[in-house]
Specification:
This protein is α+β, with helices and mostly antiparallel strands. It is built from 12 helices and 11 strands. Strands 6, 7, 8, 9, 10 and 11 form a 6-stranded mixed β-sheet that branches. The chain has a 5-stranded antiparallel β-sheet with strand order 2-1-5-4-3, sandwiched between helices. Strand 7 and strand 8 (about 230-235) form a beta hairpin. The relative contact order is 0.09.
């Protein structure tokens, strides 16, 4: 028995919608979706697309239908698309992958291509949708940046340091070369913090990082372990004398007076140095030995450097 107006579950709007469900309505629905959608035949020719796909390509539907990827994209990119389509037609089923694409308006988007093969009237086709994940990727990159960077000073984070040191040790083992680890503690920082407050103390840390960066290479990893303690990883080390000269330069750069928020302050540094593989082959051992050398420089009167004992 058919449902009527008085029957539970009856909805006049559904009947009205179904009465209008022709190809024009379906096309309007697909065009309203904020997702580029396309269909290709087994020869790789576009046979259908929606309005968002037109915006993606920068062409109208009559300029797209009947064309292949080689007609719409540069050769290298078209070849990537063509080979991916061939694999999907060969295997059947679905295909999904991430890519960075350039829209016709010049904007760059992170996207997921989601494609599937289907059959209709004894012909095989491939339908595809391009999902924009730019906002998600930006959020992921920002989370990664926060995880890898000390938010106050812009130096690498403790997590970044451990990853960089692990990588450096493995690389040094493969290439049979040396790396250096420099542990730096700011002398006088506690007094600055206690006398002028944390805001001035924060400025002192930021200033210290800027000064250290002036002495080292861009490829060197400068990390803040916490408080006023920093660590530098030096790769591609040819002569140890260069590390000792750098230690002297950093001591000079961090020593002396400066003005922070109108307050005259003085700061210095103590440095401990450890070398791979002489003082350890594992990251934690190198950090421990550099820290012990730092302690020795403190005992020696500060504002100096010491190398880990052999």
């Amino acid at each position: 028995m058919a449902l009527g107006e008085g029957d539970m579950g009856y909805c006049p709007a559904v009947d009205e919608f179904c009465a209008k469900s022709d190809s024009t309505l379906i096309q309007s629905i697909i065009d309203a979706l904020p997702v580029p959608i396309f269909v290709k035949d087994s020869k790789g020719l576009y046979v259908y697309c929606n309005t968002p796909f037109e915006k993606y390509v920068g062409k109208k539907v009559h300029e797209i239908e009947g064309k292949s990827v080689f007609d719409l994209w540069d050769h290298d990119l078209a070849k990537v698309y063509f080979e991916a389509d061939n694999r999907l037609f060969g295997s059947g089923g679905e295909q999904q992958y991430e890519a960075r694409v350039k829209y016709a308006d010049g904007s760059i988007h992170d996207v997921i291509f989601h494609k599937a093969v289907f059959s209709s009237m004894d012909e095989r086709y491939m339908a595809g949708a391009i999902l924009d994940i730019t906002a998600r990727k930006l959020a992921e990159r920002e989370i990664e940046r926060i995880a890898l960077t000390d938010t106050l000073t812009g130096a690498a984070s403790r997590y970044h340091l451990y990853a960089a040191l692990e990588h450096a040790c493995k690389k040094a083992a493969r290439q049979n070369c040396s790396i250096a680890l420099m542990s730096i503690d700011l002398d006088g920082f506690k007094e600055i913090n206690d006398t002028y407050g944390h805001l001035v103390g924060d400025d002192a840390l930021v200033n210290a990082v800027k000064r250290i960066r002036q002495c080292i290479r861009e490829s060197d990893t400068l990390a803040r372990l916490g408080g006023d303690e920093f660590v530098i990883v030096f790769e591609g080390l040819e002569h140890r004398d260069s590390i000792f000269r750098l230690a002297e330069a950093i001591l000079t750069c961090l020593s002396g007076g400066m003005e922070l928020q109108g307050n005259p302050v003085r700061m210095g540094a103590s440095i401990g140095i450890a070398f791979y593989p002489d003082h350890g082959k594992a990251p934690q051992e190198l950090l421990r030995r550099a820290d012990l050398a730092l302690y020795e420089s403190k005992l020696a009167g500060k504002v100096c450097y010491r190398t880990a004992a052999s």
